[in-house]
Recover the amino acids of this structure.
């Protein structure tokens, strides 16, 4: 059960990324895409910290197993 839930969560994340990029391309970049969103997130120290902690969490739960 937990493996199926894990895979479903990753499928949801991937679908969200594809949806954001598709929306961005369909609106001719009036809606920011993933790169613009990441740039805006990493401008400030708090955003960098959140991104770093998220990357650490991902590494611990996916790659350390």
């Amino acid at each position: 059960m937990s493996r199926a839930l894990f895979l479903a969560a990753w499928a949801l994340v991937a679908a969200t990324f594809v949806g954001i990029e598709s929306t961005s391309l369909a609106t001719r970049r009036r809606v920011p895409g993933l790169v613009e969103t990441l740039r805006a997130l990493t401008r400030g120290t708090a955003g960098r910290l959140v991104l770093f902690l998220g990357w650490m969490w991902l590494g611990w739960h996916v790659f350390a197993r």
User: Anything to note?
Assistant: Helices lie at 2-26, 34-41, 45-63.
